[in-house]
Amino acid sequence: MDNKRRKEQSRKQKQQDKEARRQRRAAQKQNDPAPPQGQDPDLEGMVPGPQPPQAD
Predict the structure, then answer these.
(1) 16 pLDDT exceeds 80?
(2) What are the counts of helices (DSSP H) followed by strands (DSSP E) for the chain?
(3) What's the CA dihedral at 28, 33, 38, 44 to 10 degrees?
(4) Looking at residues 22-32, what average pLDDT do you find?
(5) Under a CB-based contact definition with an 8 Å cutoff, are residues 35 and 41 in contact?
(6) Which residues contact 22 (CB under 8 A, 6 or more apart)?
(7) How confident is the model at residue 43 (pLDDT cuts 50, 70, 90)?
(8) What is the pLDDT of residue 53?
(9) What is the CA radius of gyration of the chain?
(10) Is 42 helix (H, G, I), strand (E, B) or coil?
(11) Looking at the predicted structure, is the pLDDT value of residue 36 above 80?
């Protein structure tokens, strides 16, 4: 019986932690500036086309 109670408490704690993470992430998203439209931050600064040869 004690093990069942501990398991349930652990499950509730995990749910609370998960909800806290969601709330922190939502608050962080509100504070972060939106990326500029039409630009992918991962591709910023990359030049399309042939690349220079790699130096050995």
Answers:
(1) yes
(2) 1, 0
(3) -90
(4) 90
(5) yes
(6) none
(7) confident
(8) 86
(9) 23
(10) coil
(11) no
What's the maximum distance between 2 C-alpha atoms anywhere in the chain? 69
Judge whether 4 and 11 are in contact, CB under 8 Å: no
Paired tokens of 29? 């998203």
**Which amino acid, residue 51?**
Q
Residues 5-9: contacts with CB under 8 Å, at least 24 apart: none
* Tokens found for residue 44: 């910023």
Residues contacting residue 41 through CB under 8 Å, at least 6 positions apart: 35
> Residues 8, 13, 14, 16: is their CA dihedral positive or negative?
positive
* Cα separations in angstroms, 48 against 37, 39, 43: 19, 14, 10
Amino acid residing at 52: P
